[in-house]
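tool=predict chain=A
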Amino acid sequence: MTRIYKKRGRKSNYVVPESEKLTFRGQYFSIIEKNAETPKAKFIREISELCLVSETTVRCWIAGEIKFRANDLWDINLGDTGADGILEYEGENIVVSEAGTYNISLKLGAPDYTYSIVSSSYDHRALLYSDGQNLEIVEIGTFTDGWAVSKFRNITRSGGTGSDLDYVDIDFPMFRLADVYLMYAEAVLRGGGGSSNDALNYVNELRQRSFGDDSGDITSSELTLDFILDERSRELFWEAHRRTDLIRFGKFTTGNYHWPWKGNVSDGTATSEHLNIYPIPASDKAANPNLEQNFGY
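tool=predict ok
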């Protein structure tokens, strides 16, 4: 395993020997003594598991406090004093406030012994890429401004690359059962008939698929039109639905719903109502002179 470490403005390559790798739940980590004159691996001990402070566990915990420990002993344990995401030897216990199943990541040496604890019961539709990206969009034309979307990948079902590396050739979903479920729920809420119980069950079916369990289920009181609009954005983003959804909900041009650079203003602003309808193309008007251009164009 080769890594590059930066020391006093220079980069040094150091190959970590197999005997000096730390194992943590099937993954390898290396603790680097960064203050040494030359980068070198410092073998501490095998970190065998995450533990409750008074109990050994593997993945599923009751709500409580945890620490990292080595070789089933507490003589080397790492906690987080100050809850800043950085591990310290004999640091304070790490609070896990809710019961559940969690994914643990250790990032040793970046810049210190950092970690993250993320519940695996979360909305897996958040297919966003943030590495090297800025959350805020300062310049629309700058690709690294704003998080990127990884919903569609230009790969085949066997994992190979698509036929065209410049343009994605993946099949585009035109009709999805998820869209039908959400349309049904919206129709019920708008007074179009149907069953409120079925509407709730359809929405929760989608969320159970996305969360992997029922932790994302909502109640009947939470099923509102505002929720449906938000849920459609979570389920159908980048599938050519958002513009028509916002128009239908009265939020595309009005001042009651903004997004960055709406109306060519960084914080967003209301726009002319005529933009709710596209202009008639010049080619169509040339083919049929009786057509009148839509208002505002």
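DSSP finds five helices and 15 strands in the chain. The two ends are 61 Å apart (CA to CA).
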